[in-house]
């Protein structure tokens, strides 16, 4: 944006931001950046290995082994119904329902910890607490040796996924603070104060650094995820692809998550926020703070406009993943080895795609918003292609089509997630990163309860292909809303909000 086009109020806000004493700013070291990146390597394999690949297969296998005939529930069978409490569920949908429950619970956890984590060094403390909780729950999959414990496997998936989601939200919240303290951004800030660069130059550099941090963390996460998934596939092959061999693969991902988190604990900067008032209620503070923020949402119209669009868009993308696994298993009768190959292709392609789109963005000088819109449009082609399959000619009609489709899907996935969180990071008020990323987590991780729930009901008695109508709508509709987001105004509103709505001024 052109500095000369700013109004007086905005100029005052920017001058206040730039007048902060540089002596109080702690410049990041290379080791501290590595400590932050290390958590992507530690935790992302859980998503790649467990949630995206093995957990659905393991849950279905255990439930099926303990299942009963649909028409005669006194007889056992391989793929029928299983009893949960007083309900009988299709074993094929068991994993979808478990994941739906976990992401629903994430919303409660995200809100309860969000604003609280912005004070002191709680953000890092909470992140590590959830990291060890989730990793231990994942390691316990190695202890399940009988199908009668299928319910315990479901509980472990719920606990580990809630913990993973919570730690990942806190991880995201470090992006804007790391970008502000990055040497390149700090140098640009000094140049603006000296009149050597404009405010728009500073914002461009901060956006570039944010995208670099986000893309590197995404690529590192997918890279380690692929390595662990290949090792898990090797374990499965050696053990004749039994369900327990897949459980060991999940436990390995949990052990990796647990061990590598110690590197993050040692080197990642805590980046403390302002101290929390001594009389604050630790259990209610985040809810009260969020209530105040939502009440004043009109001051952050662009931020909340983006959140609504991302809620829909994220749900659509996550539903495509769940349906793809389900379709491969049921329609094409892929065995565990083939499913594992597919599970490796996606994150490997995502690793390549993350850097591919980062190169495209830098070459074409695209903003994060422009890059996200381009990727989202390309992403929407996946469900369209599947729906074309009703013609019977092509569109995942033949098994050979699976592999190029998965590669294409992966090329979009990593960059899609990376640019989305960078765009959002630019729109949130300083000092409220965890609070606002808890909202992002609800619209990202916790929004995904809706898609599996609805598509699970759609495909219960219909062709799985019909399930892709829902994510197609969810991928296309929010694009108009994102295009409507005014980034310049959003950044200015966030700067102003951070000054006008402190705990003291809001009576907290």
TrEMBL record:
Keyword Translocase tagged: no
Gene Ontology CC annotation, any one: vacuolar membrane
Gene3D superfamilies in UniProt: MFS general substrate transporter like domains
Record InterPro entries: Atg22, Atg22-like, ATG22/LtaA_families, MFS_trans_sf
Keywords: Amino-acid transport, Autophagy, Membrane, Transmembrane, Transmembrane helix, Transport, Vacuole
Pfam families xref list: ATG22
Example GO biological process: autophagy
Membrane protein topology class: Multi-pass membrane protein
Localization per record: Endomembrane system; Vacuole membrane
Residues spanning the signal sequence: none
Ranges annotated as spanning the membrane: 36-59, 94-113, 125-144, 150-174, 219-238, 244-263, 306-327, 339-360, 372-394, 406-427, 465-485
Entry keyword annotation includes Transmembrane: yes
Family to which this protein belongs: Belongs to the ATG22 family.
Known function: Vacuolar effluxer which mediate the efflux of amino acids resulting from autophagic degradation. The release of autophagic amino acids allows the maintenance of protein synthesis and viability during nitrogen starvation.
Name assigned to this protein: Autophagy-related protein
Species name: Mortierella alpina
């Amino acid at each position: 944006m052109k500095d000369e086009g700013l109004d007086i109020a905005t100029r005052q806000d920017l001058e206040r931001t730039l007048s902060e004493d540089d002596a109080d700013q702690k410049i990041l070291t290379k080791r501290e950046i590595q400590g932050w990146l290390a958590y992507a390597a530690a935790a992302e394999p859980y998503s790649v290995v467990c949630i995206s690949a093995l957990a659905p297969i393991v849950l279905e296998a255990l439930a099926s082994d303990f299942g009963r005939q649909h028409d005669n529930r006194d007889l056992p069978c391989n793929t029928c119904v299983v009893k949960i409490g007083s309900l009988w569920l299709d074993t094929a949908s068991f994993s979808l329902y478990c994941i739906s429950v976990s992401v629903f619970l994430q919303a409660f956890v995200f809100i309860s910890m969000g604003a609280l984590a912005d004070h002191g060094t709680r953000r890092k403390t909470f992140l590590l607490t959830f990291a060890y909780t989730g990793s231990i729950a994942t390691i316990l999959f190695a202890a399940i040796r009988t199908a009668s414990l299928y319910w315990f496997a479901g509980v472990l998936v719920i606990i580990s996924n809630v913990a993973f989601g919570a730690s990942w939200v806190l991880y995201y919240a470090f992006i804007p603070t790391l970008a502000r303290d990055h040497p390149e951004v700090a140098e640009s800030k000094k140049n603006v104060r000296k009149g050597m660069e404009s405010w728009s130059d500073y914002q461009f550099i901060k956006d570039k650094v944010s995208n670099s941090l986000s893309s590197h963390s995404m690529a590192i996460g997918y890279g380690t995820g692929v390595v662990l998934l290949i090792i898990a596939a090797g374990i499965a092959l050696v053990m004749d692809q039994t369900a327990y061999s897949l459980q060991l693969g999940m436990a390995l991902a949990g052990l990796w998550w647990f061990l590598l988190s110690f590197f993050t604990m040692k080197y990642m900067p805590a980046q403390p926020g302002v101290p929390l008032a001594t009389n604050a209620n630790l259990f209610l503070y985040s809810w009260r703070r969020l209530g105040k923020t939502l009440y004043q949402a009109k001051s952050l119209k662009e931020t909340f406009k983006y959140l609504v669009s991302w809620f829909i868009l994220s749900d659509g993308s996550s539903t495509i993943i769940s349906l793809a696994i389900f379709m491969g298993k049921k329609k094409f009768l892929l065995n565990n080895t083939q499913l594992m190959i597919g599970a490796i292709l996606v994150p490997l392609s995502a690793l390549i795609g993350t850097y591919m789109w980062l190169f495209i963005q830098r070459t074409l000088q695209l903003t994060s918003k422009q890059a996200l819109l381009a990727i989202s449009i390309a992403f929407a082609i996946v469900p369209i292609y599947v729906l074309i399959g009703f013609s019977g000619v092509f569109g995942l009609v033949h098994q050979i089509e699976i592999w190029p489709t998965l590669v294409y899907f992966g090329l979009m996935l990593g960059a899609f997630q990376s640019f989305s969180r960078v765009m959002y990071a630019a729109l949130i008020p300083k000092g409220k990163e965890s609070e606002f990323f808890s909202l992002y987590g609800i619209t990202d991780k916790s929004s995904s309860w809706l898609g599996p729930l609805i598509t699970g009901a759609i495909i219960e008695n219909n062709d799985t292909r019909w399930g892709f109508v829902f994510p197609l709508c969810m991928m296309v509709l929010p694009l108009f809303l994102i295009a409507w987001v005014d980034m310049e105004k959003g950044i200015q509103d966030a700067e102003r909000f951070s000054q006008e709505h402190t705990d003291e001024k809001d009576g907290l």
